[in-house]
Design a protein that fits this description.
Layout (H helix, E strand, L loop, with lengths): L5 H16 L19 H15 L7 H4 L3 H18 L1
Helix pairs in contact: 1-4
Length: 88
C-alpha cells in the first residue's frame, strides 16, 4: 500500500467531482461542502466506492460528516493513509 498525501487526495477528488458534474476542475471549490455539489446519493456512493478502491482501504462511514469539504477530507485521507501504511 502506498501513502497518499493530502495534495494527491485533493487532486483526485477535484478531478472526479469535476467529471461527475461536467465542469472544469477550476470550478471545484475545495472549501465548499460536499452537499452543495448537487450529487445525488447514488453518485456519492459511487464516488466513495471509487475513492476506497483508489486508496486501498475503507474510510469510516462518518468521514464525510466530520470532514465535509474536499480540503478537510483530503487531510483526513492523508492521516488515514499514514496510519494504514504504518500498520502494514
Amino acid at each position: 500500500m502506498q501513502r497518499v498525501t493530502a495534495e494527491e487526495a485533493r487532486a483526485w477528488l477535484v478531478e472526479k467531482l469535476a467529471i461527475r458534474l461536467g465542469v472544469g476542475q477550476d470550478q471545484i471549490d475545495v472549501e465548499r461542502y460536499f452537499d452543495e455539489f448537487d450529487l445525488d446519493s447514488t453518485e456519492a456512493l459511487i464516488l466513495a466506492g471509487e475513492l476506497e478502491k483508489w486508496l486501498g482501504f475503507e474510510l469510516e462511514a462518518t468521514a464525510l460528516w466530520y470532514h465535509p469539504t474536499i480540503a478537510a477530507l483530503s487531510e483526513h485521507i492523508a492521516e488515514e493513509s499514514d496510519r494504514h501504511v504504518t500498520a502494514a
